Amino acid sequence: MPHINLLPWRETLKKERETRFFIITGISLLFMGFLVFLVHFYMDTQIGYQQGRNHYLKSEIKKVDAQLQTIKKLKKEKQRLIERMDIIQELEESRSNVVHLFDELVKQLPNGVYFTSMKQKGDKITLEGVAQSDSRVSSLMGNIEASQWLTNPKILTIKAIEDKKLQKSAYKKRRLSHFKLEITQTTPTKKDNSP
User: Contact at 8 Å (CB) between 127 and 178?
Assistant: First the structure.
């Protein structure tokens, strides 16, 4: 006898397929939701980590900026101190130059020449004085030219004057030369000082 299945197997199969479809769809949705949650959690963690790094970098940049300001102040202070030290060293080196200047002026001064005033501006010295004759002024200039400590003598003015002291007591008038001379003070090198 033939076997006839009277049960609604097609409907049962359809229901099983629908149930499987809904289960697979639900599992897929749950998996996708979990995956989206994991990605979102990972991205939030990375953003938080980067923000922490940015905050750390900003705080370190502020520290470095403060240190740079301190360094700039220290550099300015260092420059001021170096300038002061240079001035002190220059004064220390030139301290003996005054002694050499007066010593050299006395050595180079020929008989019959007298200084009445001396002005110094930097290494330029202006001398005023009286000489018994123009030739003695020329002799003074030659002596200065040969000096190690004084150079470049330039006569600014020279004029003849009468000696008022001798004019009253003596029988004849005496003429003197009033001069104004500019010279340059130098420091000789070691070669110049060697005998």
Answer: no
Whether the CB-CB separation of 156 and 192 falls below 8 Å is answered with: no
pLDDT tens sequence across 85-144: 998 888 787 777 777 778 888 888 888 888 899 898 888 889 899 988 888 888 888 888
Residue 130 corresponds to which tokens in the numbers above? Answer: 């009286």
Tokens of 149: 């400590």
Cα–Cα distance measured from residue 193 to residue 187, given in angstroms and rounded to the nearest whole number:
10
HSE-up (13 A, CA, CB side) for residue 121: 3
Looking at this protein, which amino acid is placed at residue 3? Answer: H
Provide the token pair at 133.
């004759």
Q: Single out the residue of 107, 87, 163 nearest to residue 130, CA to CA.
A: 163
Beta bridge partners of 154: 182
pTM of the predicted model over 0.90: no
Residue in 144, 143, 109 with CA at minimum distance from that of residue 129:
109
Length of the chain: 195
